[in-house]
Amino acid sequence: MACAQFDEVADLLEIGQRERERVKYPKRAITVAVPVNMDDGSTQVFTGFRVQHHLSLGPTKGGMRYHPDVALGEVAALAMWMSWKCALTGLPYGGAKGGVTCDPGKMSIQELERLTRRFTQEIIGFIGPQIDIPAPDMGTNEQTMAWMMDTYSTHSGYSVPGVVTGKPVNLGGSLGRRESTGRGVGFLVGRAMEHIKLAPENTTAVIQGFGNVGSVAAGSIARFGTKIIAVSDAFGGIYNAKGLDLNLLDAHVTKNRTVVGFPEAEPITNEELLLIPCDILVPAALERQITKDNAARIQCRILAEAANGPTTPEADAIIAQRPEIFVIPDILCNAGGVVVSYFEWVQDLQSFFWDEAEVMGKLYRILETAFKQTVHTARDKKLTMRTAALSIGIKRVADAKKQRGLFP
């Protein structure tokens, strides 16, 4: 998917073959064995990955995921998307991504700590505040980042908070970081409603994925007066045409760790959820959820891609023929997380921290600029929103590589 998108935009931008290869391929791709002493006395060897896509604009930046399906190809694609995302929002970063093939839900907290510390040690020569700065992703969290920071700092002999972002606030994390992706989604949905002249109080929203991003996005969108009529997680979904009470739902999820069984809604599958008639559809779960099989049947006015790569290229072609759907592409829609990660890194480097209002104000200004640039590019060059966003990001990376030249 990532390569197909790149090739299409590279053709549009008329990037030459020599430059195209440099912009496309990752700078570094690292695979490591991660042996871990398990609680039952056995030793299990996991496989870890870190891909750094390019270093032309600064250090690389990207998440670290723990999931059974983590593989080198997936990590490389996510690193590429992160490059375009950082360039689109004007951050001085290249893209990176990493992870370990494991099932964190089946591991104890002690096993996860040993896994994280050993993985960090294996890649320690390739990360650092001026090299590559990991962050939380699927299956990882603030605690994971604290372990990574401590391992790196112990190796260095002094505290290095800037080596990771998404840390606990009292270890150098930023206020607002945990909520930043979801709040960014909400802000951009609001701007999209203004752009296509939708009255928020008369709108409905459906959200696939009720984790950290989806739940925060739901709350942010609901503040406009929009009714959240359906949500889902990995175990299933729920639907109430009159709107869900998010406070009651949050309490239910806190107690049961799933939206399934919420008494004030009827059950629905994830597949059915994507086809519910609504004004705003927010895929905030996994990749490749909107495909050639369901793209013609989704019924929304705004498609806000809070997940990475939720729409396949085949589905994109179908949605491009449906002008009633306004797409907020993933590299713009979910950029709030990396923007506030950038703020956290800056605060760590200068040892001077901002309050949450300042963080959110700066975030919304950056997203506003990126939204306007994408809308104007799409309108002026008659492109889809995705192609417009990608073309801005890819061109900035290609220009940087051209200006820096090629070291012999």
Automatic annotation (TrEMBL):
Pfam families registered for this protein in UniProt: ELFV_dehydrog, ELFV_dehydrog_N
GO MF: glutamate dehydrogenase (NAD+) activity; nucleotide binding
Nucleotide-binding recorded as keyword: yes
CDD domains, sorted: NAD_bind_1_Glu_DH
Binding-site positions, substrate: 61, 85, 341
UniProt keyword annotations, A-Z: NAD, Nucleotide-binding, Oxidoreductase
Biological processes, Gene Ontology terms: L-glutamate catabolic process
Glutamate/phenylalanine/leucine/valine/L-tryptophan dehydrogenase C-terminal domain span: 174-405
Active-site positions on this chain: 97
Residues that hold NAD(+) according to the record: 181, 212
Chain positions of site Important for catalysis: 137
Family assignment from sequence similarity: Belongs to the Glu/Leu/Phe/Val dehydrogenases family.
Name of the protein described by the UniProt record: Glutamate dehydrogenase
Originating organism: Phragmitibacter flavus
